[in-house]
């Protein structure tokens, strides 16, 4: 008989091997990789079954999609969309009827927007009663200056009154605005409201943050709001908690979350700073070092802004509170609005701060630009980082030049987005052949959003000449009429032009073929970009 001890040891070793192999098999079967493989195999199988089913019923699918496309094309042609937008959707639906129709329905359903739309419209209605009675001023404008009266009437109907006694200072560079912003923040005694599209850690933001923290400790109410895309790229997701620990009230507009919604297409692109209801800033300048040329990204960064003091600050205060209070159950406004007699600042001309929202059917930003172009007598000078135009804006610029108006546009020579630069070039031939002068700022990137016309009217704000700004984003600006700062704006434009290269038809004809081809293709879907 063999050794019993040895037999027992061999038996135990065999059991251990069997148990290990069972555990290994079990871990493989329940492991993440195996599960993913099985799910992938199931999906591939279903896909082949779908193709097989579809192949045997292709005539039904083809006929159905043709009828669907025809119905959608008729519907689209009868909507109130801009002709360029209609064309884009018609092309998409004609090429891919089922996908195009579903995409259009998805956007029209306004998923994620309805509650936001209702909240913002409610705050706008609440604040309408807080604007001053301007019947006497409007009557005086009607009698003295019909052109100013026309602008004021349109903007007032959309909730943005005209103000006298408002002084404006223009900043031709981000670093100029930054210096005065620091001074004004240090002077704050009651409250600081700040709303920005981009916030990025660096010298500029850290300088501002130190003041906000100091003021919050001193009892000044500090509210800070930024767009949710910063959480995606520039700031940690938990950054609001960090700011609140310093006594700063903080909100993030539409933070990026893994939810299917059209809400994320509408960003808060505004740049607003309000100090004590007496001073306000707006313009293209965000809170990041490239905007003040502390950091070089696309050559020299050319940006602009304005500071407003006086009665017009009231609208900037309410614009901020409208957005801040959109999700608040208890909303307060009056305590932040000073009586006009306490904030009047003797100055010439009129100032009309205004906002533009994608939540209504009124394109205020585009209407103001179009009115300036269509009523220009001598000149229209424009600085914009992007030139992605709809049919109406393109026609207005061309027609103004054809009727003898000196139309000049300054764009970047070094772009921040290559696709936007390529799309801008698709408009060069039509505009230049119509008499529009196009310049590219050779030292670097132009981020300014400036209009000036006939030495008497202008706009400085956040609104670009592209579909994003004119259709999809929350924006703000100030319409300036007869104010002294217009002289500084014109002087800055001409100085910037002197540093720029004028694009000619020779340049257009010698553009690389692949750039022209890419632009032609992207132009088809430009309204959706």
Could you name the CATH class of the domain at 114-155 and 162-350?
Alpha Beta
Strand content: 15-25%
For the secondary structure, the number of strands is 17
Mean pLDDT: 85
Distance between the termini: 86 Å
Principal-axis shape: globular
What class, by secondary structure content? alpha/beta
Strand order of the largest sheet: 9-16-15-14-10-11-12-17
**Low-confidence residue ranges:** 17-32
CATH superfamily of the domain at 114-155 and 162-350: Endonuclease Chain A
Second CATH tier, the architecture of the domain at 114-155 and 162-350: 2-Layer Sandwich
Radius of gyration using CA atoms only: 29 Å
- Helix amount: 40-55%
DSSP helix count? 22
- Largest beta-sheet characterization: 8 strands, mixed
CATH overall fold name of the domain at 114-155 and 162-350: Endonuclease, Chain A
Protein model, in words:
This protein is α/β, with parallel strands linked by helices and 529 residues long. The chain has a domain at 114-155 and 162-350: Endonuclease, Chain A, CATH 3.30.870. The chain is built from 22 helices and 17 strands. It has helices at residues 4-30, 32-56, 58-77, 83-95, 97-108, 114-128, 135-144, 146-157, 174-187, 203-217, 229-233, 239-244, 313-324, 340-343, 364-375, 391-402, 418-425, 428-434, 467-472, 485-498, 505-509, 513-524, and strands at 166-171, 191-196, 221-227, 249-253, 272-275, 279-283, 300-302, 305-310, 350-356, 379-383, 406-412, 437-441, 444-446, 450-453, 457-461, 475-481, 500-503. Strands 9-16-15-14-10-11-12-17 form an eight-stranded mixed beta sheet, sandwiched between helices. α3 runs antiparallel to α4 and α7 packs antiparallel against α8.
């Amino acid at each position: 008989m063999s050794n019993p001890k040895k037999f027992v040891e061999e038996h135990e070793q065999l059991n251990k091997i069997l148990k290990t192999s069972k555990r290994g098999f079990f871990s493989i079967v329940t492991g993440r990789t195996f599960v993913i493989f099985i799910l992938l195999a199931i999906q591939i199988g279903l896909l082949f079954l779908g193709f097989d089913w579809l192949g045997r019923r292709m005539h039904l699918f083809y006929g159905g999609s043709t009828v669907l496309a025809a119905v959608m094309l008729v519907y689209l042609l009868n909507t109130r969309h801009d002709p360029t937008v209609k064309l884009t959707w018609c092309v998409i639906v004609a090429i891919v009827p089922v996908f195009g129709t579903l995409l259009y329905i998805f956007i029209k359903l306004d998923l994620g927007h309805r509650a936001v739309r209702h909240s913002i419209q409610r705050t706008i209605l609440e604040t309408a009663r807080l604007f001053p009675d301007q019947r006497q001023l409007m009557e005086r404008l009607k009698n003295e200056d019909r052109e100013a009266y026309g602008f004021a009437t349109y903007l007032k109907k959309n909730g943005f009154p005209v103000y006298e006694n408002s002084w404006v200072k223009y900043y031709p560079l981000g670093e100029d605005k930054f210096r005065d912003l620091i001074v004004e923040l240090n002077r704050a005694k009651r409250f600081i409201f700040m709303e920005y599209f981009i916030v990025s850690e660096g010298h500029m933001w850290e300088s501002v943050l130190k003041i906000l923290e100091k003021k919050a400790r001193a009892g000044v109410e500090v509210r800070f709001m930024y767009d949710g895309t910063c959480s995606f790229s520039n700031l940690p997701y938990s950054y609001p908690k960090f700011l609140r620990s310093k006594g700063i009230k903080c909100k993030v507009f539409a933070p990026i979350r893994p939810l299917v919604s059209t809400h994320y297409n509408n960003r808060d692109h505004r740049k607003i700073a309000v100090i004590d209801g007496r001073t306000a800033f707006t313009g293209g300048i965000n809170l990041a070092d490239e905007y003040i040329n502390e950091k070089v990204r696309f050559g020299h960064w050319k940006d602009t802004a304005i500071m407003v003091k006086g009665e017009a600050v009231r609208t900037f205060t309410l614009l901020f509170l409208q957005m801040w209070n959109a999700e608040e159950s208890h909303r307060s406004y009056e305590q932040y609005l000073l009586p006009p007699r306490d904030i009047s600042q003797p100055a010439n001309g009129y100032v009309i701060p205004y906002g533009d929202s994608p939540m209504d059917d009124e394109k205020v930003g585009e209407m103001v630009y179009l009115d300036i172009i269509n009523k220009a007598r001598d000149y229209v000078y424009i600085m914009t980082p992007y030139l992605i135009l709809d049919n109406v804006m393109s026609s207005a610029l061309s027609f103004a030049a054809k009727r003898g108006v000196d139309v000049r546009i300054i764009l970047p020579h070094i772009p921040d987005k290559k696709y936007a630069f390529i799309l801008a070039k698709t408009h060069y031939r039509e505009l230049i052949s119509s008499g529009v002068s196009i310049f590219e700022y050779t030292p670097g990137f132009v981020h300014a959003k400036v209009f000036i016309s006939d030495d008497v009217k202008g706009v400085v704000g956040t609104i670009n000449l592209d579909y994003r700004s004119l259709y999809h984003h929350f924006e703000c600006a100030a319409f300036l009429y007869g104010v002294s700062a217009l002289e500084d704006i014109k002087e800055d434009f001409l100085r910037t032009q002197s540093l720029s290269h004028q694009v000619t038809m020779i340049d257009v004809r010698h553009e690389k073929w692949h750039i022209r081809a890419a632009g032609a293709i992207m132009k088809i879907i430009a309204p959706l970009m």
